[in-house]
Amino acid sequence: MSAVYDAVVVGAGPYGLSTAAHLLGRGLRVAVFGRTLELWRHHMPKGMLLRSHWWATNLSDPRQQYGFERFFRDSRYEKGYPVPIEEFIDYGLWFQERAVPNVDETYVASIEREDEHFLLTLEDGRQVQSSAVVMAIGVYYYANRPEPYAGLPAGLVSHSCDHNDFSRFMSKRVIVIGGGQSAIEYAALLTEAGATVQVVSRRPIAWLGPDRANERTVFERILAPNASIAPGWQNWVLEHMPFFFYRFPQERKDRYNGNYFSGATDWLRNRVIGKATLRESRTVVTMKAVDGKVEATIADGATVRADHVILATGYKVDVNALPMIHPSLRADIKTDMSIPVLSHWFESSVPGLYFVGLTSLRAFGPLFRFVAGCRAAARRVAGAVARDRAGSSRAAAVTESRAASRLPASDWGVRSG
Predict the structure, then answer these.
(1) Do 203 and 291 fall into the same domain?
(2) Has residue 191 been placed in a domain?
(3) Lowest-confidence range among 84-88, 116-120, 223-227, 338-342?
(4) Which of 54, 131, 134, 292 is the most buried (most CB within 10 A)?
(5) For residues 93 and 205, what is the distance between their CA atoms, to the nearest angstrom?
(6) Per-residue pLDDT for 412 more than 50?
(7) Are residues 301 and 347 both part of a single domain?
């Protein structure tokens, strides 16, 4: 007989762990499937630094017991900026051990809808049932690999999420496509690993100013208050009124999301300027394999040869890219531009099926691209699942009571006169 849960969380990254912690805090029967912080541990490069401050990178539990502040007291780490990825990984594992101790690292192979519940088949053949499923699958499945590069052999092109060690690129020539934080940081790390790097960005690199979070005057904080994403009133509203964005028409939200792109942190300047070639406001016209190398023609007329191309081209949500969702279930998920349409509870058109993290960005805004959005999403989803379970329990109790009221008195164990 398969195990039965109130909620199953698919994914054990920041959003999955935070949502599971809040579901457990509601007293629900919860299972979490996935490898803890897998993207961070195996698909992000060693030596990477987080753009966000430690105080803006907390995972969330219902009593707020397991934030970075307590982690610092319990560990060898000290407060500082920027935060090394190794420190964040250790914090995430520390959080998981305390807030969500029973993560099952088996992958989910299939999710189907059967009557009033979901049937999940795991890769080891086990099956579980659940009233609700929370898809916290992170970004890996959404890696954006633009069509111009799809024709290159796999050995010549890869996505930024395919790497966590750049030592293989020593003495190699590498083209990095993109101009955001990831592209510039990868260029720095590749250069430091001994590669010769060229960055091709379709827009000018937006360099952020030096971090002054601890030095800003009262007047500066009034003009642009501190926020987890970055200083500024818009970011402050996104963080402190996390569901306000949801109310706007989709066209307006799309326009805002489209203009919201991340810049490169100031502490990367000295690591790339003069060390990597930056081709800003340029696009690749053609790219082909020639004698086991990559030959790229840039819009400015330059021809660049390289050993490898890394696509730091971000992520594009597409529910069709999620292999664990059974075709019959996928057909029932209402989408727009292949993105699930979500209610203000993060619930899809399939009752009980929720999406958090990047999948929810189009509906809820840029906050949910960052770890800073974990708390708002986790609290809301846990509240929705608990409410639905309570409603189901009440409905079952009423049905049972009505059925019992129609029984003869002797069937109640009461002797009739």
Answers:
(1) yes
(2) yes
(3) 223-227
(4) 134
(5) 34
(6) no
(7) no
Q: Vertex 43, ends 168 and 139: CA angle to 5°?
A: 145
> What is the predicted pLDDT for the residue at 394?
57
pLDDT at 230: 87
Q: Which conformational region is residue 180 in: left (phi greater than 0), alpha (psi within -120 to 50 degrees), or beta?
A: beta
Q: Which of 101-115, 129-143, 255-269 has the lowest mean pLDDT?
A: 255-269
138 vs 376: CA distance, rounded Å: 16
Give how many domains the chain has, as a whole number: 2
Residue 377 has which token pair?
Answer: 């999403």
pLDDT at 89 over 50: yes
Do both 374 and 390 map to the same domain?
yes
Q: How is residue 200 written in tokens?
A: 């091709």
- Domain enclosing residue 196, as ranges: 147-311
- Among all chains, which residue has been given the structure tokens 């993109």? 178
DSSP, collapsed to helix, strand or coil, labels residue 84 as: strand
CA-to-CA distance for 217 and 20, rounded, in angstroms? Answer: 39
Whole-Å CA distances, 221 to 166, 213, 224 = 39, 9, 5
Q: How far apart are CA 392 and CA 354, in angstroms?
A: 17
The answer to whether residue 409 is domain-embedded is no
Instruction: Indicate the pairing of strand 284-290 with strand 293-298.
Output: antiparallel
Instruction: Burial-class residue 138 by CB neighbours within 10 Å (0-12, 13-18, 19+).
Output: buried
- 114 Cβ contact partners less than 8 Å away, ≥ 6 residues apart: 129
Strand segments, DSSP code E, in 115-185 are 117-122, 127-135, 157-159, 173-177
Tabulate helix, strand, coil % of the chain (nearest 5): 40, 20, 40
Angle made by CA atoms 405, 407, 412, in degrees to the nearest 5: 90
- 91, two tokens: 């914090």
Alpha carbons 10 and 2: distance in angstroms, whole number? 17
| Entry pTM | 0.92
Q: How far apart are CA 71 and CA 78, in angstroms?
A: 9
CATH number of the domain bearing residue 256:
3.50.50.60
- Give just the sign of the alpha carbon dihedral 370, 105, 378, 349: positive
Instruction: Say if 37 falls within a structural domain.
Output: yes
Helices 374-405 & 14-25 angle (0-180, nearest 10): 40
For 198, the enclosing helix (H) or strand (E) is: strand 196-200
What H or E segment, with its residue span, contains residue 98? helix 85-99
Report if residue 153 sits inside a domain.
yes
Domain shared by 376 and 323, yes or no: yes
Give pLDDT, residue 393.
61
User: Which residue, chain included where needed, has tokens 């994403």?
Assistant: 229
